[in-house]
DNA sequence: AAAGCCACCAACCGCCAGGGG
DNA sequence: GCCCCTGGCGGTTGGTGGCTT
């Protein structure tokens, strides 16, 4: 049996918000702000718990909320960011002005996940990508290691070309080879990472590289997925699957 | 026309981290 | 260091409306 919700316990209202409640909440926040969510409903005269008020405001009533369907660009951004960050909806939402984590989560579960699954199936689901040969349209030297570039500007989503080759948004080309799983990735010296955010994301391993790490430093390490970040801002990331011993295929820095 | 199914999405729940006493 | 409170997050649920049979 589930624990009785706090709202019910206190005789507070649950369920969909009425326009009247919305108006009360908006007026109150416009006038007094929302320094204390717990106290807010009482002050505003709402029979809701603070949590419910906060959620309603954050996800629906905030003036900067962007309504309407997600654009193709927004969906692509979500896919890229999800690939990088996993289910960190708030972090993804931070990169999409006017969109909420809840909204993004819903879009992911209702549209994007299915799209991804379909794509995976079509592409022979078990295929993993390995950076066998890398060609870049841009000189990798010109890429900032320091987080000064916007993520959308520097994200790299893998798409498949008609020739079966995969390219990212920079034209980095990947050759699909045999399948291999996370267990087969070489072990990384954990002392290298300033912040251990490693996680098992399906068959992939994700790591965060210190923002000030030199590119030399991290390509010298065999890795699954490599990212660089600076705090919350994931400004640069490089998606490479590298096998030990194949570093020669990487461009010289 | 009615029933069943499904997709969507707003809202809720439980957990966790951070801050203050 | 401990406890409590609060905000924030991600997972899940349930109501609603549209579609199919």
Automatic annotation (TrEMBL):
Residues 9-61, 62-112 form the Myb-like domain. Keywords: DNA-binding, Nucleus, Repeat, Transcription, Transcription regulation. Residues 126-171 are annotated as: Disordered. One of its GO terms (cellular component) is nucleus. It is found in: Nucleus. InterPro entries: Homeodomain-like_sf (IPR009057), Myb_dom (IPR017930), Myb_TF_plants (IPR015495), SANT/Myb (IPR001005). One of its GO terms (molecular function) is DNA binding. Residues 146-163 have a biased composition (Low complexity). Residues 9-61, 62-116 form the HTH myb-type domain. Coiled coil: none annotated. Signal peptide: none annotated. Its main location: nucleus. It comes from the Eukaryota. PANTHER family: MYB FAMILY PROTEIN, MYB FAMILY TRANSCRIPTION FACTOR. This is Uncharacterized protein. It comes from Rhynchospora breviuscula.
């Amino acid at each position: 049996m589930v624990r009785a919700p706090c709202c019910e316990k206190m005789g507070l209202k649950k369920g969909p918000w009425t326009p009247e409640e919305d108006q009360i909440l908006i007026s109150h926040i416009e006038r007094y702000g929302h320094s204390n969510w717990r106290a807010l409903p009482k002050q505003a005269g709402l029979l809701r718990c603070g949590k419910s008020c906060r959620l309603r405001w954050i996800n629906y009533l905030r003036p900067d909320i962007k309504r309407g369907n997600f654009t193709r660009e927004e969906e692509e951004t979500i896919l890229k960011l999800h690939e990088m960050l996993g289910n960190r909806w708030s972090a993804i939402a931070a990169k999409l002005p006017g969109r909420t984590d809840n909204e993004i989560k819903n879009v992911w579960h209702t549209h994007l996940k299915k799209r991804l699954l379909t794509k995976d199936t079509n592409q022979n689901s078990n295929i993993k990508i390995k950076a066998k040969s890398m060609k870049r349209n841009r000189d990798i030297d010109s890429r900032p290691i320091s987080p000064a570039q916007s993520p959308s500007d520097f994200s790299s989503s893998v798409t498949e070309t008609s020739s079966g080759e995969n390219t990212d948004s920079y034209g980095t080309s990947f050759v699909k080879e045999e399948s291999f799983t996370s267990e087969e990735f070489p072990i990384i010296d954990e002392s290298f990472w300033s912040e251990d955010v490693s996680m098992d994301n399906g068959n992939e391993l994700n790591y965060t590289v210190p923002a000030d790490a030199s590119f030399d430093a991290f390509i010298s390490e065999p890795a699954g997925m490599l990212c660089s970040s600076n705090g919350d801002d994931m400004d640069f990331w490089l998606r490479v699957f590298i096998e030990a011993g194949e570093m020669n295929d990487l461009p010289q820095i």
